[in-house]
Amino acid sequence: MKFHEMNENEIASALRTDFTEGLEEKEVKRRREQHGYNALAEGEKQSALLLFFSQFKDFMVLVLLAATLISGLLGEMVDAIAIIAIVLVNGILGFFQERKAEKSLDALKELSAPQVHALRDGEWTKIPSKEVVPGDILKFISGDRIGADIRLIESRSLEIEESALTGESVPVQKNTSPLRIPNPGLGDMENMAFMGTMVTRGTGSGVVVATGMKTAMGQIADLLQTAETQETPLQRRLEQLGKILITAALFLTLLVVGIGVLQGHDLYTMFLAGVSLAVAAIPEGLPAIVTVALSLGVQRMIRKNAIVRKLPAVETLGCASVICSDKTGTMTQNKMTVTHLWSGNKTWTVDGVGYSPTGLFFHDDKSVDPQNEKSLQQLLTFGMLCNHAEMIDKDGEYAIDGDPTEGALLVAAMKAGYRRENLLNQFEIVNEFPFDSQRKMMSMIVKDNTGRKFAVVKGAPDVLIGLSDSILWDERQQRLTKDLTSKVQGAIDELAGNALRTIAIAFKPIPQNTVVLHENEAEKDLVFIGLQGMIDPPRPEVKTAVKECRDAGIKTVMITGDHVITAKAIANQLGILTKGSKVLDGKALSEMSVSELEDIVDDVSVFARVSPEHKLKIVKALQNRGHIVAMTGDGVNDAPAIKAADIGVAMGITGTDVAKEASSLVLLDDNFATIKAAIKEGRNIYENIRKFIRYLLASNVGEILVMLFAMIMGLPLPLVPIQILWVNLVTDGLPAMALGLDQPEEDVMKRAPRHPKEGVFARGLGWKVVSRGFLIGLMTLFAFMIVYNRNPDDLVYAQTIAFTTLVMAQLIHVFDCRSEKSIFARNPFENKYLVWAVISSLVMVLGVIYSPVLQPIFHTVPILAVDWLLILGLSAIPTFLLAGTFFARKTKRNMI
Ligand SMILES: Nc1ncnc2c1ncn2[C@@H]1O[C@H](COP(=O)(O)OP(=O)(O)OP(=O)(O)O)[C@@H](O)[C@H]1O
Ligand SMILES: [Ca+2]
Questions:
Q1: Cβ contacts of 243 within 8 Å, gap of 6 or more
Q2: At 209, which helix (H) or strand (E)?
Q3: Backbone dihedral region of 826: left (phi > 0), alpha (psi from -120 to 50 degrees) or beta?
Q4: Enzyme group, top EC level (predicted)?
Q5: Which of 307, 367, 449, 738 could form a disulfide with 834 if both were Cys (CB 3.0 to 4.6 A apart)?
Q6: What phi and psi values does residue 559 have, to the nearest 5 degrees?
Q7: At what angle do helices 733-740 and 832-850 cross, to 10 degrees?
Q8: Mean pLDDT of all residues in the chain?
Q9: Is the predicted pLDDT of residue 604 greater than 60, yes or no?
Q10: In this structure, which residue's CA is closest to atom 30 in ligand 1?
Q11: End-to-end alpha-carbon separation of the chain, Å?
Q12: Over the stretch 225-242, which tens digit does the pLDDT of each residue have?
């Protein structure tokens, strides 16, 4: 018999499991050995060896190796071996960097791996989906992605969208009864839930019948998932730039070689010089370093509770100009406590701390016994009944399992002495229509001991009042007149005006033999009972975060399903509502077209009483206004807006699988301030990438120019090939990496967001590269000429001076690259990595100059002390000469 044909007992015995206890840990281990992990097979990964060899596949490195071969054949063994050694060192460095980048991206994948709710050893726990074995009991709610193939044993309004499997995008209504049709298709198996499909409504639970490749998904997964590589816009731009630079570098190299040969240098020397120069001038390593910098940035973000799911988001974050954020849980703490209750024109307050179920009730500042207040009793008991939250009491430490709003209602009723167990003895729950943020309410059909049936409804007061035709007033059921309606409205507004989140409770008697099949039948002609108002304090760090965002040119917009007045009160507390900014509600939003919204959207700071569906409209309108939008969300219905936003942000704690999958950033702590931290990090990563692009390109320009100038002037070669290689592949590498780890400049969050289409050389970077590069080349040439003219017989000494000047000029220039302004704008020793990188580059170059073993290889000789003055003087000029112009400009601006 197949699983879908079995009844509950047959399934339990077929899979040797227990519906109330689940599997034992021992048994899980045994089954895992038998069935393996619950994962679909993945494409092959690149081996370490392959990664190592890929470091040498670059075109220029191959040319270099070919050149080495030629020089080896010509008998220049020392040169050949040295070149090979340098290429090897460079390859090993590259290998370790890329390995590190890969590892951190893998760790990221682990972090965002899906989880499921499983019953193990009698307790519900969250486990990685990978660890599920056949026989496990899983439960799921709307927004979950199903983690294995499951035979359902419980379903409440459960609907599952199976398009991933069947292509059918209309959700299927599920049930639990054994299936009697012969050979049903996947789409017909209404008592099964399949791996990879998505719960769109309701809740359910079931037994895992198949895992991994044995699932229906596994069997059609012949197209194995391959890890897709994600290129960021900058990486793409750099690749294009790389092509241009290669052409330019080759052209200049040919020029140098051509002029050199015309000036009478021998062909072989010029060939080697040309090849080395080409290797030096072409920034092939750049895209790789960018990847490394991005992945290191991603790791820093994890430490700040932000998980980047799509690498390009790291860059886009720095461009964000609007953050649209949910209120509840993201800007507030989602720790709700009922403080005010209202029914039939009477208000009570209740005190107490946290979720502890003790507190006193007051009316008109006098303590009252809730058992004497009939309408209060109704309000509290129905609020407890139409409720899924559970109280967890761990040695007097109280916590809530479930929706915090419902938790608050539960605690309020417990303060009055009610217990859910007792209530469930009086009322039997017949059916439920779960909460959704579209209807903004939920209802349960219950039957009491005497057989009377009710619908108990709770939800947004302004919605419920519209569905009621009578009301409990002065402890009597009365017709809801216009007059009474406006009194209720007044009570709602008063609670909301104090930043309280309000929930209304209502009920409706149902004839005994009527079966309510649809929520529309239950949720109309209601008897309005009253209101409960709860505080949800703002997260303390949000106010500062909102301000920091404003300083950074980023607007914060609150989007909430909550009441307009509540939303406004909280937005005011957080500094989101500023002078002239507007509040728009869902109703007005529904009546607007995207283009109408576009006209006013820049002035709106709060969207209240909206449904998730509205979010897409808001994103579109903002994008049409040219904004780069970050949009948060957690539910199934948020997914389209999250996907459409430039940066989709999902909640790590309350977020559904569907929202997370659509997002490019997940907040581990659901905190608004984390978005701000991620944006700051995103801006910093981009600036750091700019820093080392600037450094490496300026170095290259300097190297080419010194050779070119020398050839044009008919001088001997100022640098020998091996020196050029050394500078490029060894001295430059470490400082460039260290720039990638640089601290943000003080004003990163004081500047306007970067334009997303900004080119690599924007904001003066091109000028800085050319001007500094030119000066580096020129000063190296000067150093060479001064020493060479002093003693033309000692070319090797002059070359050593040129080599050292070039290195020193770059090692000084690297500090200038830390700031957009000037080397004087920052403390040069702030970046410890950079200080160590420069020191080690320095030690290495001193080794090359002074070690008798290395001297013959690098064609160097020891430098006289006086010439160090010359070297240091000249090498400081490229950085300090133009830093002076910055000061001149700055003082002038200050004077105006
Ligand atoms: N569990 C619930 N049962 C009944 N009504 C609820 C429940 N949770 C929320 N509501 C009502 O529905 C309204 C909308 O809730 P929704 O979850 O869409 O947004 P929210 O949580 O208030 O705000 P945000 O969009 O900022 O997260 C709430 O203001 C409340 O009145
Ligand atoms: Ca180079």
A1: none
A2: strand 198-210
A3: beta
A4: translocase
A5: 738
A6: -125, 120
A7: 180
A8: 88
A9: yes
A10: 460
A11: 89
A12: 444 556 778 878 887 888
Pocket of ligand 1 (CB under 6 A): 326-328, 403, 405-406, 435, 437, 440-442, 458-460, 501, 503, 560-563
SS (H, E, C) 307-366: EECCCHHHHHHCCCCEEEEECCCCCECCCCEEEEEEECCEEEEECCCCCCCCCCEEECCE
Tokens 């379903």 locate to 155
Overall average pLDDT of the 346-357 stretch: 92
Ligand 1 atom with least separation from CA of 406? 1
Using pLDDT thresholds of 50, 70 and 90, give the confidence band for residue 284: low
214 alpha carbon – ligand 2 mean position (Å) = 52
pLDDT category, 58, cuts 50, 70, 90? Answer: low
Query: Among the listed ranges 106-115, 144-153, 347-356, 805-814, which one has the minimum average pLDDT value?
Result: 106-115
Confidence of residue 290 (pLDDT cuts 50, 70, 90): confident
Nearest-angstrom CA–CA distance, 350 and 718: 86
Whether the predicted pLDDT of 383 surpasses 90 = yes
Main-chain dihedrals φ then ψ at residue 530, nearest 5 degrees: 170, -165
Ligand lying closest to the C-alpha of residue 655:
1
CA of 504 from ligand 1 middle (Å) equals 11
d(CA 296, CA 749): 20
Question: What number does the ligand 1 atom closest to the CA of 458 have?
Answer: 4
Q: Which helix (H) or strand (E) holds 814?
A: helix 795-816
Cα-Cα-Cα-Cα dihedral sign, residues 466, 468, 472, 473: positive
> Of these residues, 326, 562, 742, 816, which one is catalytic?
326
How much distance in Å is there from the Cα of 278 to the middle of ligand 2?
8
Point out the ligand 1 atom lying closest to the alpha carbon of residue 403: 1
Candidate from 410, 500, 503, 542 with most ligand 1 atoms within 8 A of CB, to mutate: 503
Distance (angstroms) between ligand 1 centre and the Cα of 607 equals 14
Residue bearing the bigger pLDDT, 280 or 658: 658
Structure tokens at 406: 């419902």
Cβ < 5 A residues, ion ligand 2: 280, 700, 728
Is 326 tagged catalytic?
yes
Reading the block at residue 640, the tokens are 């389209």
| Of residues 539, 531, 503, the one with CA closest to residue 407 | 503
List Cβ neighbours of 647 (8 Å cut-off, separation of 6 or more): 313, 316, 317, 320, 628, 629, 630, 631, 664, 665
Nearest CA to ligand 1 atom 19: 561
What domains appear along the chain, each with residue ranges and CATH number? 3-42+116-220 (2.70.150.10), 256-301+680-895 (1.20.1110.10), 311-332+539-670 (3.40.50.1000), 337-535 (3.40.1110.10)
Number of neighbouring beta carbons within 10 Å of residue 352: 18
Ligand nearest to the Cα of 586, by number: 1
Task: Pick the ligand that lies closest to the CA of residue 724.
Answer: 2
Residues 6+ apart with CB under 8 A from 33: none
| CA 326 to ligand 1: nearest atom | 26
**What DSSP state is assigned to residue 630?**
E
Ligand 2 centre distance from Cα of residue 611 (Å): 54
pLDDT at 853: 92
Nearest ligand atom owner, CA of 631: 1
532 CA → ligand 1 middle, Å: 13
* pLDDT tens-digit map of 776-827: 999 999 999 999 999 999 999 999 999 999 999 999 999 999 988 877 788 8
Q: Is residue 154 classed exposed, middle or buried when 0-12, 13-18 and 19+ CB atoms within 10 A define those classes? A: middle
Nearest-atom index, ligand 1, CA of 388: 1
Q: Which of 334, 440, 611 to mutate to test the pocket of ligand 1 (most atoms within 8 A of CB)?
A: 440
Residue 887 binned pLDDT confidence (cut-offs 50, 70, 90): low
CA 847 to ligand 2 centroid distance, Å: 21
What type of residue is 362? F
Give the residue, 238 or 347, on which the prediction is more confident.
Answer: 347
Closest ligand 1 atom, residue 567 Cα: 26
